[in-house]
Amino acid sequence: MPSLRSALMLLAVMVPPTAALVDGAWANPLCSLNSVHCFYGPGTITSSDSLESCSDLYSNARYDLILGNFVLGFAVPPGGDTEDASASVAAVDQYHVEGVSPGTPLVFYAEMDVHLNAYGYACRPVGWSIATSVSATLKEGNSNLSSASIRTPIKCSPNGLCCAQAAHLEKTLRVTVTRLAGDLFTLHFDLAGIGRGSGQESGQLRFSGLPPGAFVVSCQGYRQDMPTTAKRTSWGGLKLLYR
């Protein structure tokens, strides 16, 4: 709506914001940079928006840090399996726990439910590169991580023709978070796929093991009240902490 866009632009000039709404996503320059990659057209897009995506004829990638979900897909073009297809998501956000007294010692879990799928494209002679792999990683801080990956198994016939077989995996990635209530912790989300076939993957963030009344919020606007699922929240209650 032009009038709404004009009003937002005028407000941005008059009052330097902590966050701005851009095409339905919160752009908060105080939060970390994130990226999505689509191999066939857009390449890599880097953004501080809460939601970003890329897409072309043969790949797509998307993250939504407010809802805590991440998806990608890719496939080699028809007849184009002489080079790798790929897609990736790399996102970061800062979180803290509210709802209990500040300074309360907490040990809880950050989890990402992932679904990984990889497929072959065409059978080729022995020696051709035909494999496809996909992977997902959840990391807290610099080294506390949990990951999963799959690769299409290769089967060759007696006549020397090799085919990549489909591979699938569903898994919950989990890292233990030890913090005081109110203290910040950083989570990294990485999804990637590459190969001469096709692949899809998705991830959904959630938290478990928090005491009654506790909930998690983030710099980008994520909020999870236990035991409910993630909800969108306004920047009004968050921007002071991340100023």
- In helices, the fraction of residues equals under 10%
Provide the structure class. Answer: mainly beta
Poorly predicted runs of 5 or more residues: 1-24, 226-243
Percent of residues in β-strands:
over 45%
Radius of gyration: 21 Å
Globally, the shape reads elongated
H/E series: HEEEEEEEEEEEEEEEEEEEE
The biggest sheet, with number of strands, parallel, antiparallel or mixed sense and barrel status, is: 9 strands, antiparallel
Number of strands: 20
Q: For the terminal residues, how far apart are their CA atoms?
A: 30 Å
What's the pLDDT, averaged over the residues? 83
Count of spatially separate domains = 1
Number of helices: 1
What does it look like?
This protein is mostly beta strands and 243 residues long. It has one domain. 5% of the residues lie in helices and 56% in strands. The radius of gyration is 21 Å and the shape is elongated. The two termini are 30 Å apart. The N terminus and C terminus are likely disordered.
Kindly summarize this structure in a few lines.
The chain is mainly beta. It contains 1 helix and 20 strands. The protein has one domain.
Layout: helices, strands, pairs:
Elements: H1 2-14, E1 20-22, E2 25-27, E3 34-38, E4 43-47, E5 51-55, E6 59-64, E7 69-75, E8 85-98, E9 105-119, E10 124-125, E11 132-140, E12 144-151, E13 154-156, E14 161-164, E15 167-180, E16 185-195, E17 198-208, E18 215-218, E19 222-225, E20 230-232
Antiparallel strand pairs: 1-2, 3-4, 3-8, 5-6, 6-7, 7-17, 8-16, 8-18, 9-15, 9-17, 10-14, 11-12, 11-16, 13-14, 18-19, 19-20
